[in-house]
Amino acid sequence: MKELFPAKQVMGFVFSLILTAVALAVYFLDMSFAIGLTVLVVTAFIQALLQLVVFMHAGETKDKWSIYGNVYFMIFIALITIFGTLFLFNWDM
Amino acid sequence: MEFFERFAIPHPSPAIYASMVVIGLTVIAIIAGLTYFKKWGYLWREWLTTVDHKRIGLMYLISALLMLFRGGVDAIMMRAQLATPDSKLLDAQHYNEIFTTHGVVMIIFMAMPFIFAFMNYIVPLQIGARDVAFPRLNAISFWLFFMGAMLFNISFVIGGSPDAGWTSYFPLAGNEFSESVGTNYYMIAIQISGLGSLMTGINMITTIMKMRAPGMTMMKMPMFTWSTLVANLIIVTVFPVLTVALAMGTMDRLFATNFFTSSNGGMDMLWANLFWVWGHPEVYILILPAFGIYSEIISTFSSKNLYGYKSMVASMVIISVLSCLVWAHHFFTMGQGAASNSFFSITTMAIAVPTGVKIFNWLFTMWKGKIRFTVPMLYSIGFIPLFTIGGVTGVMLAMSAADYQYHNTMFLVAHFHNTIIPGVVFAMLAGLTYYWPKMFGFMLNERIGKWTFWLLSIGFVLAFFPMYITGLDGQARRMYTYSEATGFGALNMISFVGAGIMAIAFALIVYNVYYSIRYSPRNIGSDPWDARTLEWATNTPVPEYNFAITPQVNSIQPFWDSKKKGHVLFPAKLDKIHMPNNSGMPFILCSIFFVWGFSFVFAIWPLVILSTIGIFACLVLRSFEKDHGRYISIEEIKETEEKTGGAKL
Q: What is the CATH number of the domain that holds B468?
């Protein structure tokens, strides 16, 4: 019975609900803009990773490296784009 | 009447009325022709509903050629207007519309479908697959592109063309300065075809990752397949940025948001930033597959395998990363500081290194090879010096301090045409000539082809090299006229003559197709060029299942090895083949997308809602549809192989 019970998925589901609740709290609790946005960004990224690993089963097959390789490449490019834009318009203008 | 007034053109001219008549007559002629020859059923069964990668590739090819001529007419009109000082041929508004549509059509509706045509047709054959990974998605990609292109092309007869440049910078592209629906067309049409490109990206990556023939490891893939993989990785990386930027721009124009406005907290520079985060990698999306085609051609016609395979792959991967690190060199003069400009200068210059590696690899491939000067090879040889000049002027432009001099001048126009025409257009024409016998079963005439090459090269040099000089002398781009005192007249006249010679060369291509259809011999077999890679191991015409038996791969040139070294390409036995079914869904879905786009452009909200429901209805229907494809029996395969001259069983 224990083998059949999808413990990982149930835990993941609960955890994603908690993350949603935390993100929602930003709206109801009175906090500064910076703190609120930080909470939103952090929970959003954890949420996305959770979905990818637990519910989209990344890393459970042989082509693990190509899935994660693509993800790392995309994260790398996204960070370059964001920090490049900040560099141009905020830190150097 | 008020409802219909918005469809009128804000800035009519006799040329536009003439085009309306021509478009009307063409549509009537096509409908009448299809009805008279009873081809409606054929069209629907064989083309509109097809999911075959080869047919989709051919449709991309035809669309690209049509758009090449549309964009070419724009170009000729621009050069004619600038040929003499103070010319009155076109007015400022008309000129603005023409350079805008020329840029968009050539990049997004000509170059992109041209490379997709080769990716679709060649890649599954090169890796020994039966089709792409998601055949129906592939059809949706094509029809999205096609509907986007058609939507963009009707703009100049219904409602007016966009006129803010192909870069469509805000605030110029905002409602305040671009009142007509033209820029809506830009936003929506590119959005629709961009979705198609993104799907193609995912499709091609999956195909190459998952469907290679046994034995073909990553480092045994043909160079064109490698370049396709890298280009599609860039597509998946950067097209979402364009999607978001276009969505924000659309909302600014239609829903009064303030993303790119210059007031209310908007930031107009953010558009230029997002546009070039997509736009710079985009030019590498175009040039990398072109490099792949050159690699195939140079290797074949030098009768040698490609020099420095590993360094070729490495340099493409490095280019793909660097291409995402350089976008700010498009707006060095926007006001950011020296530190960021220096950073983007250096990354830009760094791209010259892997590109140089590739140039030397091609030269070394030819070194001591037995070179055959066929038409595809002529284009490839012409490409190397001409593209290098474009690259060198690119490094000049990359110097941010010097860029203050070059920025927005004809020097820049000369530079990017100097990379795109010998880089991409030559590659497409070389690929067209090279793969023509595989696609249609006969060769294009070599003699006319050589004439075309020389006319095109000479015309290109005459048309664009004078711009380097006028640019340095201060002629600005996108100016519809100039005074006689500037002294630009003579050089611009030379440019016009060059453009005319290029137009003759393109007309010769059409004549060559006609001539070759009539006179070219049909008994050329399936390997007329004595080539090296798997796509030439199929029969001609290629059966719908590509390979009766999945090939076994041993090296980067398995077909050559099977011809010269006794490598057994098809070791297995015949088995029934699983193929996808045709479907009308992609065409219908994308037709609804066309209506959706059109009603969005003119803000006809009831129609927008209806067509959105239609799109989702299609998606739901597809989700519940059960389609397991079909099997081709062994008898049927034998029959087809017999008919297509398959002696390989």
A: 1.20.210.10
